[in-house]
Amino acid sequence: MTKRKRNGGGPVRYAVVGQGYIAQAAVLPAFAHAKRNSRLVALFSGDETKRRELEKQSQQAAPVDASFETVELDGIKAAFEIKQVDNPKALPDLADRIKNQLGDPAVVVLGAPGDGRATLIVAATPGAVERGVKAGAVVKVAAQVVGGGGGGRDNMAQAGGREPEKLPDALAAARAEIERALAG
Question: Long-range contact list for 92-97, CB < 8 A, 24+ apart?
Fold first, then answer.
């Protein structure tokens, strides 16, 4: 295991190398209780299947706030939220859960700040896509606001940027793009 302190303070960042018994029984579970001063940033293993399984377990160990508010845009339910997550890889699953709770047609736009970066994800149901809402187009517009880029499919897309402080503006831009697509 290696540890590194970020420039300017902040949590200690850890990378767990090897996925043996000690890592599985002691090290990884500890991150669920050390949110303020420690952060798991990478898992390394020669066994890719085991690494993926442990990565999912470590994401599950740190629950993400799944609450959301819904707005209706021209008959499509929508959620626009900024979430604090330990691992941005948790956003697609969270977006899917919210999208499934909203029903069809729906669109979900999530943003997450972290380590001087912004992560964005857009998920759209088939009904929203049929109405003209394309996740890839929406995320591109939002990504420009946070100084980044991205893309994806019509139903799911993600992006990153260098200006996490602009996430509220990025979500507003995403909403405007969705409204433009529905009007169009």
Answer: 92/121, 92/123, 92/156, 92/158, 93/59, 94/64, 94/66, 95/121, 95/122, 95/123, 95/156, 96/123, 97/66
